[in-house]
Amino acid sequence: MLGTRGLRCWEAAGWDIGVLRNGEYIGEWELRTLGKGHFAVVKLARHVFTGQRVAVKVIDKSKLAGEAAGQLLQEVRCMKLVQHPNVVRLYEVIDTHSKLYLILELGDGGDMFDHIMRHEGGLAEGRAKHYFAQIVHAISYCHKLHVVHRDLKPENVVFFQEQGVVKLTDFGFSNRFQPGKMLTTSCGSLAYSAPEILLGDEYDAPAVDIWSLGVILYMLVCGQPPFQEANDSETLTMIMDCRYTVFSVSLPSPGSLISRMLQRDPRQRASLEQIEGHAWLQGVDPSPASRSLLPLTSHKRVSREEHEIIIQAMTCGHIADRDTIQE
């Protein structure tokens, strides 16, 4: 938690920052609400140290029951664990008496759902392949750390135009899993959820993410969800029957890959290794973000005034004394 004393140090160092009073951000953060949910509000703010814009997920702890509070802690644990160029980064967690603030990396290009909706009939195959490879790369990393997302959908994939990549976000339904051990919690969004979750059955964690990957790829290349009917009941029936429009083109088309993921029986679904090795994805660089990140700025490129502000802030925060910092 960043206390009042620490905030005074930043203000003394010359940074325009807000303070936490009664659990709310005020001051010169340039706050703007981006979205609202039952438990949380997502706001736009300026980072206290770098001036970089960040997203602030403000969670009202008074609205969280025991199970919801536990899931929130799980979200924070998973996001701290998952550090990947195609996953939105959790910078900091600020805990107050009534609110929890998650300081998150902010995308500059909107989410994938809006992007798909602007491309009737789907994205160009090369572009769809480029984005999908990055999503698979991120989920493969998560699963290797035994983290399952459980709410994969285009709305939870964010564009970072300056970096030229897409990143996963919203780990609100994420959880740790043990290979071979089933999970039981039903969660996610109907149109993207695997049949076994909707049935309330025990389920294999990686398999439910793979089903959702199949839905995302279908949307990328078709421009619409595979299971979207007039009402939830009809949509549920389509998912249970695994009925969707099948591509008429031959291997190694995206259609063949989609059919390997949208399997009613989770044991028949493609593994992530099989997805990454599919012919349709060959020749695609799955990790351009690792080369697009800008290097850290050298002190030689910082102005004298900026350098002094940073020294003051670090000294005031008891990171080290001035002589040690300048060595």
From TrEMBL:
Looking up InterPro entries in the UniProt record yields: Kinase-like_dom_sf, Prot_kinase_dom, Protein_kinase_ATP_BS, Ser/Thr_kinase_AS
Domain called Protein kinase: residue spans: 28-281
Name of the top EC class for this enzyme: transferase
Keyword Ion transport part of the UniProt annotation: no
Tell me the function of this protein: May play a role in hematopoietic cell proliferation or differentiation. Potential mediator of neuronal apoptosis.
Q: Which family does it belong to?
A: Belongs to the protein kinase superfamily. CAMK Ser/Thr protein kinase family.
Name of the protein: SNF-related serine/threonine-protein kinase
Ranked from the top, the taxonomy reads:
Eukaryota, Metazoa, Chordata, Craniata, Vertebrata
